[in-house]
Amino acid sequence: MPDTVFVLNGPNLNLLGLREPDIYGHDTLDDIAGMLEDRARELGLAIDLRQSNHEGHLVDWLHEAQAVKAKAVLLNAGGFTHTSVAVHDAIKSVVTPVIEVHLSNPHKRESFRHVSLIGQAAKGTIAGFGALSYLLALEAAARI
């Protein structure tokens, strides 16, 4: 049975492909899931991709990732990146490595996006490469 990588997506990421495509691109979350599943298979991994607009779900899923001994978590916390002490604390409370992922480069955007509470707790961050950010994060997860 292959190691599992959780791919957790926060608020508004269910609207990828429709929401501000000039910033987030035209790929939908389903498109990204397909790319990840194909690459994961090549790497001998399995993907468990989830999305929620609710902060508590992300916290619960981080705990679950540890409970099931997931290899890693790829986390695009959306707007919670900049505001969620709860998700920050959940990352710090688990031993499962968490890789922060962003489609856009938050440092090239509004100043309130320049601080990442998630990045302060995560093993690393990959941002600014559109859907490729997820694939790069999966490559990193496979090697840690």
How would you describe the overall organization of this protein?
The chain is α/β, with parallel strands linked by helices and 144 residues long. Helices cover 37% and strands 19% of the residues. The protein has helices at residues 21-24, 29-43, 55-67, 85-93, 132-143; strands at residues 3-9, 45-51, 72-76, 98-102, 124-127. A five-stranded parallel β-sheet has the order 2-1-3-4-5, with helices on both faces. Strand 3, helix 4 (85-93) and strand 4 form a beta-alpha-beta unit. The mean pLDDT is 94.
Count of helix runs: 5
Strand order of the largest sheet: 2-1-3-4-5
Helix content: 25-40%
Kindly name the structural category.
alpha/beta
Strand runs, count: 5
Sum up the overall morphology in one term. globular
Compute the separation of the termini in Å: 18 Å
Question: Percent of residues in beta strands?
Answer: 15-25%
String of helices and strands: EHHEHEHEEH
Spans of at least 5 consecutive residues with low confidence: none
Largest sheet: 5 strands, parallel
Summarize the structure.
Helices cover 37% and strands 19% of the residues. It has 144 residues and is α/β, with parallel strands linked by helices.
